[in-house]
Amino acid sequence: MSSGGTEGLFAKKTLEITDDVLLSYKNQGGFDLLGRTVDQIRTTEQVNAAMSTCCDLSLDGLIIIGGVTSNSDAAQLAETFATHNCKTKVIGVPVTLSGDLKNQFVETTVGFDTVCKVNSQLISNICLDAVSAGKYYYFVRLMGGKASHVAFECALQSHPNMVILGEEVALSKLTLMEITNKICEGVEARAAQGKYHGVLLIPEGLIESIPEMYALIQEINNLHSNNVPEDEIPSQLSPWAAALFKFLPPFIRRELVLHQESDNSAQLSQIDTEQLLAHLVEAEMNKRTKEGNYYKGRKFSSVCHFFGSQARGSLPSNFDCNYAYVLGHICVQIVAKGLNGYMATVTNLKDSINKWRCAAVPLTAMMSVRRHLRGPGAVPIGRPVIHPSPIDLKAESYGVLREKASSFLLDDFYRTPGGIQFEGSGADTKPITLTIEGQDYLGDIEILQDYLEKVRIILKPGCSREILKAAISSMASVNDVLKVMSAPLNAELPLYHFS
């Protein structure tokens, strides 16, 4: 095993995993056994260093554990290894706390259930404290970059008064002030019922979903890419961006100009979006109070929290433990079969373990071409990657949240899931979004194969001409429909495969 993250892999720093070594880490939280460094294997130098280590150690397989970025890099490694006749097979495993590696093959990721359970317990504690004090609004920011899955799942588990998802904001193109007014309207509606407290959830990626903030962040990122020093960035902004930048509170200005992450994106975890919203809402509520539109003798008060990656230090849930063990066994089988550039996957996770369906899926089946460039050293145009999957606003689980939104807002319908249980009635609960959606891609393929087999039996030689004509007409219609539905997807698929 590589010790010390990707830097350890490049430097040939390894650790043999024995029963004794694993004993103190088994079923524990954290990343400290594997280690973590730059989170990427992308440049020519990094790829060559990884290949050199694998060849020198004569490894049969290299298992890349991570989310969309790590598994995109795994695909590049697999292609490079095959091209250079390196015997090491590269396998990806879906592990990310934010849950944004999600598609027809990957129903959820290892770590997501644990993080949501830990955060939901903390949120429920805050909800009970809010109703106990009766005078504070809690603004809680949760981890999640371009997708709001953690905030979404935690809202279903803990029932806060309000949740604002990045996908909703992006779809409706809500401005910063429109979001502020939306929150204020909720505060006024609760005040009309004599309630002067509440809990609001937001994802850390929300700020990039707001149109004008996204444009400002893009300008700042471009200046970073051109090596403009942080203290000179404000003076280099375009007039409209400079005006928006000046409008923002000083603490947000400082955070927006922080140096970028390794993938050339803004440091979302360092931008206190919850404090920005609390600041704007408080200013607006004070204004409405003076105008007599709020409540007399009351002052809007807010308390802010950010629950980031700390939840990964928790003991993992039973579901995550079982899921990780099964994926580990699949990886062994993939390497033993000599497959390269595959991801270990499990479907039908909503059901009991004995009904889970295990598979190896080509990483290319999850990839599409990135259409833009974000400055020097960024991912080039045309490089196939696995993209983060946003919340599907047409999904049944989102419909459940919308259906309950009014009750959550006004009724203090708080839910207390409690801590992670390893025995008892709550021990084997799974993410609510997972149980509602009930996706089983491999199961659906089996159903399709059963239908095709039945058609083959019905249409065996000797069947009547009428049946044959009906079959031809039906299959032609099916073919036309599938062509139309699959055309946009096929246009995005990369034009290469692994050896």
Automatic annotation (TrEMBL):
Residue intervals of the Phosphofructokinase domain: 4-334
Transmembrane feature ranges: none
Pfam families: PFK
Gene Ontology MF terms: 6-phosphofructokinase activity; diphosphate-fructose-6-phosphate 1-phosphotransferase activity; metal ion binding
Any GO CC annotation of this UniProt entry: cytosol
GO biological process: photosynthesis; response to glucose
Gene3D superfamilies with a match to the protein in the record: 3.40.50.450, Phosphofructokinase domain, Phosphofructokinase, domain 3
Record's keyword terms, sorted: Cytoplasm, Glycolysis, Kinase, Magnesium, Metal-binding, Transferase
InterPro entries, A to Z: Phosphofructokinase_dom, PKF_sf
Descriptive protein name: Phosphofructokinase domain-containing protein
Protein species of origin: Panicum hallii var. hallii
